[in-house]
Amino acid sequence: MKRFFLFSIFLGLSTLLFAQNDTIAGWTFPDLEESSLLANFGADENIQTAKLKTESSERPIKLMEFDEHNVASSDHWQNIANLKFWKISLDVSNYTNITVSSNQRSTSTLPGPEFFKLQYKLENNPWTDIDNSTLQLADNWEAANYDGILLPEECDNYQGTLEVRWIATSDTLSNGISVEANGVSYIKNIFIKGEYTPLNLNPVLVGWEFGELWGSFDPTPSHGITSNLGHTIKVYKENETDTSAISYGGVGYTNGCASISGWEQGENKMFWMIQLSTKDYVDIELSSRQRSEEGGPASFELQYKIGDAEWKAIDNGSIALDSEWETGNTDRLTLPEECEDSDQLISIRWIMNSSDAVEASSIDPEAASIIDEIFVYGYSTTNENEFIKNEMKLYPVPCQTYLQLNTVKEMTTVRIFNLSGQLLDILNPSSSQVRINTTKLNPGIFILQIENQDGQLTSKRFIKN
């Protein structure tokens, strides 16, 4: 199965996907139970998982009806400047151009904090202000709205947990009165949205992005599918039994890098090498960045082998290095077709193929070869016809006139929502199989919310052509 077919699928999907502003996680508090603090709209990873919280369990959230809407409320905001907040944590992988929307309010009878701002946090990083997010609350729902505040680009497709908080920034109100312990703040209609990018069609099968500058070298991948995370990057001399020690080489292309010297007799003998599984993946592509210190090797060739077979050259795999990150870059180089969907391990190596040195007449034993940002990509063959996950089968995807949903356990309720959270249809199958008529749906992306006989909720995205 080659790229043309998969690209056709991708093109058809992207026409719909990229035009949509998808809800990643949303809170509308459908009832006043504590479970409504969990997202009731959004991606599978967030719905009924991502939760609205305050900074402490000692300051709980109360759900209540206010002005004919269900809202979240909390008191004890006294002594709060930059200490107390609303907070959510969510998964934004596969989403870009991420925005925040919400409504906030205080009252004149029990006034809570008047001034808030938005901040975000990526794992192991400090909280950071979001530009243009200062907000002044009033005794109405119109004055204090975030309407699509854009998060910084570093949040796009973030692979860890993204945190967003609404933090109170002042202990006093604009009239100079201090916020009291019984002062209440309200929030409703929280939506985190973004453009869905189907990166799962072209994931990183394995990747090394060296985050450290110094210290003990970690040869394991920083990215990749589960079956590849146990492999390591290596350097060999002479043959595949003489392994040389690799170290961090200080500043790399972005963060750290991998570095090793001792290439003076390495022509056609010494090489960097990685291994990976490509089972269930096709159209394999390779990217990497290389450079050498002055006197280090100036020329490499990319080669591959399958299992214990002989090494073979990769077309257009000749790499000329300099002392900067300018000429030694490989960008999405396609590997031969025989590397696709292989039951055997694929080995890839960057072998020094001449005695030429960078900015010197001969190789200096102390000069290092440096490599960074190694990524191998592939297209999944298991996403083409049906989606099977969590004991659930959903097909055809995309659908036209019908959608077949099969589960292990009996389903009691199936709801269909659009991406704005509007309920379009509800079914009560009382069965483990249901055939859903989709002829009345307009082309687009929809969400199924499925409740089984045990009361468990899950949701799945589907596309109607």
Q: How would you portray this structure in words?
A:
The structure is a single chain. With 465 residues, the chain is mainly beta. It has 3 domains: 19-196, Sandwich (Jelly Rolls), CATH 2.60.120; 201-380, Jelly Rolls; 387-464, Macroglobulin (MG2) domain (Immunoglobulin-like). The protein is 3% helix and 44% strand. It contains 1 helix and 32 strands. It has one helix spanning 3-17; strands at 22-27, 41-42, 53-54, 62-66, 69-74, 85-91, 95-105, 115-121, 128-129, 135-136, 145-150, 161-168, 185-196, 204-208, 223-224, 234-236, 247-248, 258-260, 271-276, 281-292, 299-306, 312-320, 329-334, 346-352, 369-380, 387-389, 392-395, 402-418, 423-427, 431-437, 444-452, 457-464. Strands 1, 2, 4, 5, 7, 11 and 13 form a 7-stranded antiparallel sheet that branches. The chain is flat and about 80 Å long. The two termini are 22 Å apart. The model is unreliable at 1-20 and 383-390 (pLDDT under 50).
Q: Looking at the structure, what is the overall shape?
A: flat
Show unreliable segments.
Answer: 1-20, 383-390
Topology, number of strands: 32
The biggest beta sheet reads: 7 strands, antiparallel
Structural class: mainly beta
CATH architecture designation of the largest domain: Sandwich
The radius of gyration computed from the alpha-carbon positions, rounded to a whole number of angstroms, is 27 Å
Number of H/I helices: 1
Q: Strand share of the residues?
A: 35-45%
What is the CATH superfamily classification of the largest domain?
Answer: Galactose-binding domain-like
- Residue-averaged pLDDT: 85
CATH topology of the largest domain: Jelly Rolls
Any idea how many domains? Answer: 3
The CATH class designation of the largest domain is Mainly Beta
Helix content: under 10%
Straight-line N-to-C gap: 22 Å
